[in-house]
Amino acid sequence: MRHLPAARPESFRLRCAAIALLAAAAMLVVGIGHAVQVGAGNIAVQDYGYPPPPPPDFNLAAQSNSLSLVQGGSATDTITVTPANGFSGDVAFSATGMPSGVTASFASNVLTLNAGAGTTTGNSNITVTGTSGSLSHSLPIGVNVLAAAPVFAIVPGITGSWYLPDQSGHGFNVEVLKGPGQDNGFLAFWYVYDNAGNNLWLVGQGSYVGDTATLNVQSGSGGLFPPNFDKNRIVRTTWGTLTLKFTDCNNATAQWNPVIPAYPNGSMNLIRLSGVSGVACP
Predict the structure, then answer these.
(1) Mapped to the 3 state alphabet, what secondary structure does 76-111 carry?
(2) Long-range pairs for 99-103 at CB < 8 Å and ≥24 separation?
(3) Interatomic CA distance for residues 147 and 261, integer angstroms
(4) pLDDT per residue of the chain (282 residues) written in tens, 0 to 9
């Protein structure tokens, strides 16, 4: 007696059909640049040569690609770090190629350049470098050092009369003293009034450095009109100090600090009223 094979369930036949479709050289892409090929009884991995993702990195940019600073001055610039490909590291900055007399420093990502008073003027380039581990990038920045504006210095031509036009009626006579042992002497007479409206004659004597004269001021009393004047009766009283600062040959500022309580501290601007013929300024 002959036995016929049993009928296979429908689900089994469907499963076999699905496997057959996969076995017919179907390609399943499973990653960038790779594919899995399913053949009859074997699996092969093929590399299509796509590049891997780039590593983390960063770029540098300067707020200003050119800085100008005067002799004795400073300038700042902000360096921006732009992350790329997931970069999250810290970046340390340095600067090289500074011209003689110029120094560089960083506070976080802010570059500060300082120029000495005697720095040579002109254009040059420096290099700012940012480093993070094995990563390093640089960028050039132009530097222009300019000559500082000349600072006014007191000269004999300052000698003359000075006053404030809005308060015409009182003012100063000043003298720049030159002579043996007196290379920077300064004398000032302030013809003014006391708090009672009487004439007050203040005399300041001292020295000057650069554009500023610093004087000790005295007032006098006890004198009489000639022929009754007697120098032995003169009493000189310390009144305070006076500072005269000149911005040029025609403009100045007076600042006074009395030690006598009746008089307040104060200051006022002055302009030249007269000079001495033949004495040039500057």
Answers:
(1) EEEEEEEEECCCCCCCEEEEECCCCCEEEEEECCEE
(2) 99/124, 99/143, 99/145, 101/145, 102/69, 102/143, 102/145
(3) 46
(4) 455 455 555 555 555 554 454 444 444 444 444 555 555 555 555 556 678 889 999 999 999 999 999 999 999 999 999 999 999 999 999 999 999 999 999 999 999 999 999 999 999 999 999 999 999 999 999 999 999 887 889 999 999 999 999 999 999 999 999 766 677 899 999 999 999 999 999 999 999 999 999 999 999 998 899 999 999 999 999 999 999 999 999 999 999 999 999 999 999 999 999 999 988 887
Burial class (CB in 10 A: 0-12, 13-18, 19+), 273: middle
Give the number of other Cβ atoms within 10 Å of residue 111's Cβ.
Answer: 22
Chain length of the chain: 282
Tally the C-alpha atoms within 13 A of residue 197's C-alpha that lie toward its C-beta: 0
| DSSP-assigned beta bridge partners for residue 28 | 36
Position 78, amino acid: T
DSSP letter string over 247-260?
Answer: SSSSEEEEEEEESS
Nearest Cα neighbor of 271 from 129, 156, 161 is 161
61: β partners? 80
**Encoding tokens for residue 255?**
């600042």
User: How many angstroms separate the CA atoms of 150 and 212, rounded?
Assistant: 15
Q: Report the candidate in 180, 186, 188, 181 with the shortest Cα–Cα distance to residue 154.
A: 186
What single-letter amino acid sits at 150?
Answer: P
In whole angstroms, what is the distance from residue 115 CA to residue 148 CA?
10
